[in-house]
Amino acid sequence: MIAGNMFDKIIGWSCIPHNTIVLVNQGKQLPEEMAGGPIKTITNGLTAWTLVGSDFDKETTIYFFPNGKIRNGRQIPDWDEIPSRTKLLVGYKGPYLVTDKRDPPKLAGSKYMHPDTVYYLAGKGLVTGDTIKDLSLLPNGTSMFLPI
Predict the structure, then answer these.
(1) What is the pTM of this model?
(2) First to last CA, the chain
């Protein structure tokens, strides 16, 4: 954290990405998009930087665009073009395609039903491992993302 009166000397106000929100005199309550849980959402003017800081452009930050495309931070050429409702995970590896021969227990061991294990269900979005009740109901094309 940097005190407001030192920000310009240390970083410089001109270095803040477009649409960044600066929160002043805030309590400990974070906006829902920034709160706990592995899945973050870019919305209400929040940027990738706001949600995950300097990890925004790393290979281990995975972006799920509203159009269904999935990219990691190193694969994004234009940060001003990330649409609202883009979801992201920070500190993850994947995707690992779930198949009959590579089922979740084989891919993740005992952590396949853990709240930090994330599944991307084509056409349905992201769900955490603790919400999966029946592995046989995972649709073809499901991808798994594991924390590093």
Answers:
(1) 0.76
(2) 25
